[in-house]
Amino acid sequence: RCTKTRRLIVHESKYEKVLEHIKRAYDQFESRISDPLDPNTNIGSLHDVQGVMKYKATITDALVAGGKVENGGKVIDKPSGGNYVLPTIITGLKHDAEVIHRETFAPILYVLKYTTLDEAIAINNEVAQGLSSSLFTQRIDNVFKWMGPKGSDCGIVNVNIPTAGAEIGGAFGGEKETGGGRESGSNSWKQYVRRSTCTINFSKHLPLAQGIKFE
Predict the structure, then answer these.
(1) Within 10 Å of residue 156's Cβ, how many Cβ atoms?
(2) Is this structure's pTM higher than 0.85?
(3) N or C end of the chain: smaller count of CB under 10 Å?
(4) What angle do helix axes 140-147 and 117-125 make, rounded to 10 degrees?
């Protein structure tokens, strides 16, 4: 999905526990990567061979930069063909590493640490893309900070729900390099029309603005 999570920014006190849980979840994927028409399938194929090449190149670049592949990192060959890859978790990189800022369009998740909410928001906002984001918290002050002018700079700003989804009644769209207007919601029709202000004078006289008269 275009709204999938690329960076998981975890508080340092919860980092190891969260990483272990996610690794166990990713262990379940390989048996459910197949034809999307199969009801057991959870993940389908990448769009094309070029997508697989970008996936492999990005993982290589992450390793060169000092990253560690915790899960995945390989291409899956199936007798039926297709461009299947294993969802991948990468750790050990700095938050501003070039490969993390890159939009690869492949199932690669970078897990990062943070200390304060301000630091996490800065990490969230430092990339060139700004489509979807989400904060998980039980503190109401964090919620309002995240959703406010000093919070996430994305077009979709969620709280306690995943990034990979959008309410169809809301205006869907992003900011920065993923900006391009909004679809759905109350403003969706504005993306498909050219608006103009029209005034028609049905009389045989030519009225002038502000009551001006030439005599």
Answers:
(1) 22
(2) yes
(3) C
(4) 30
